[in-house]
Amino acid sequence: MALVVLLGAGVALFTLRSGPGEPGEPGLSAAAAAHPRLPEVRRTMEGYGPLTAEVARTAGGESLVAGHPERAADVAVLAAALPDAVDAVTAVWGPEWPRTALLAVADSPAEFAGLIRATGPVSPEMAAATVADPFRPGSTPTGQRVVFSPDAGRRLGPDGLATLLRHELTHVAARAVTSDAAPQWVLEGFADYTAHRARPAAFAATAPTLTAALRAGAGPADLPADADFRGGDAVQAYERAWSVHAYIADAFGEQAVPRLYRRLAAGPLDPAAEDAALRAELGVGRDELVAGWLGWIAERSGVTAAR
Predict the structure, then answer these.
(1) Are the C-beta atoms of 4 and 14 separated by less than 8 Å?
(2) The pTM is what?
(3) What residues of the chain score a pLDDT lower than 50?
């Protein structure tokens, strides 16, 4: 028999398997063992120990969260958060994506590197990554999965893990129109905007390092460059990218955010092409966008009011 515990939001955790003739296998419910996407991660994960998996019903069907018994708590948190996370991404991006997901929680840095198909060193600061099979622009991406690092749950807690999940699912939803060569402020800022939109907080709570820099008179002068997302300034680069999109939603309407993403994320753009895309979607050029954004973040951080 299988003991099924309902956690709300359409999540069923299959936690106990026993009885003759059960079509499942040790550590997995029949539903999880039969899930068509389990083999995608099983080949890598079983070499690192026994598997546990939970099935969550999301808007597009049955999603799967796989891990190991040592990470069962993170697996449960992610399975419970998945339905709302899918809905939050769809609210911004629209329904033109599968609205299901495959998630994997690694149990070691080596397993994490294997699951994300890393070809070099992986930063210990990386909490999650989204990967997909190679695909041609215009085709449907396959093999997409979100992989969480072994310590993501410990570092972030349940709320932070759910926010990270929404961020990564945004990459999944938008993958078909996204080029890895597009500006990082577009790719990461849009994902962070979607992640935080579902549970809005005060500017200083969402962007604490940016707020501190602004109040210290060391705020940015331009949009973050791709290099800013690597190294010691990465946290502020993500906050700056989020704030650009939050400003665009506030100043030009929320629908401008996904429209602009579809135009800017399709490939690398030289300054003239980026300026033209901004004018086409927002009616302002890059310099005007930057000036408006800088004034907006100064106001939101309290710098303007303090002067």
Answers:
(1) yes
(2) 0.90
(3) 1-24, 307
